Amino acid sequence: MTSRQQIRVAAVMERIAAPNRWEAWKFRLVDVIPDECIFGSAPRRLVDDGKVSRWLYPGFAIALYADECKGYYLNLTSGRPSWFVSWVVEEADPTLPMLTGVGVSYIEADRRMASEEHVETVPLAPELCEWLRLFTNAHYRPETRRKVRAMSFLSAEERERHMAALVSAAASDLPAPAPAEADAAAEADREASQRARNAGLREMFHADPHFRQSDGLDVADDEVHEIEGTPVGRQRKILQARALGLLDDELLDQELPPSDPPPASSGG
Fold first, then answer.
1. Fewer Cβ within 10 Å of end Cβ, the chain: N or C?
2. 85: closest CA among 99, 74, 96?
């Protein structure tokens, strides 16, 4: 379905000769303007100073289609509604680009980019934004998708019931029946039981000293000075590691460091 109203536009392209040592030509989109049907149909040169030239590409008829409304909607809600102008450069004549399309559909522009065409944008005039908005509001029907619960989160019994429902629906060519109220209640009970179990585990890990016992390798802030400055901390760490079985057999025979450092000998 197409819109009753169509507009005609022309694109203005700029060509730069030898922009760098690797390129002979560079092209960019300058503007999209109304086509007054007086420009003909072939590209025409507007200005040329030997380095930079501008070319007019006339004859693009813009019509709106209902099946492209999602692309119009994405364009209007992008924060910068735009014209999308696409072109290719042919090997036979690399001095000028060949324009392949002028439109206002975000999805169409994405398709052209996926086909390795060059796509550039310029802002869409406010009156054309309103024209596009009115058509989109009248014809756009957003897709509604039913949220499906992932199979990995279902229990074995639920997966079996789900697969049986799919097989039955495929055999009878009818949609799968909705779950019974008893199944819904049972699922709610299972979820409540799981939440209670998780809460009990959290309480156990926080309250039981067994789960908060140090393995002898963690260092608290108030223990740093003992480890670095005195042998007391080292002795305590060795005892804890020995009790937890973290020491090698050959280290078990070593003597513990003295609790206090020996007195310094005075010079004679």
1. C
2. 99
**pLDDT (tens digit, 9 = 90+) per residue, 139-196?**
998 877 666 555 555 666 776 777 777 767 666 654 444 555 667 777 888 888 888 8
State residue 10's pLDDT score: 95
- Residue-wise pLDDT tens digits, 78-117: 999 999 999 999 999 999 999 999 999 999 999 999 999 9
* Residues 42, 40: Cα–Cα separation, whole Å: 6
Nearest Cα to Cα of residue 54 among 120, 10, 8:
10
Instruction: Name the strands in the sheet holding 44-48, side by side, starting at the edge strand that comes first in the sequence.
Output: 23-34, 7-20, 52-62, 44-48
Q: pLDDT, tens digit, for every residue of 124-154?
A: 999 999 999 999 999 998 877 666 555 555 6
Q: Which two tokens stand for residue 69?
A: 């409304």
Question: Which pLDDT does position 185 carry in this prediction?
Answer: 76
- In angstroms, the CA 120 to CA 87 distance is 9
CA dist 80 and 114 (Å) reads: 21
Q: Are 176 and 146 in contact (CB under 8 A)?
A: no
Distance between CA atoms of 63 and 61, rounded to whole angstroms? Answer: 6
CA nearest neighbour of 76 among 105, 111, 108: 105
pLDDT band for position 216 (cuts 50, 70, 90) = low
Residue 61, beta-bridge partner list: 8
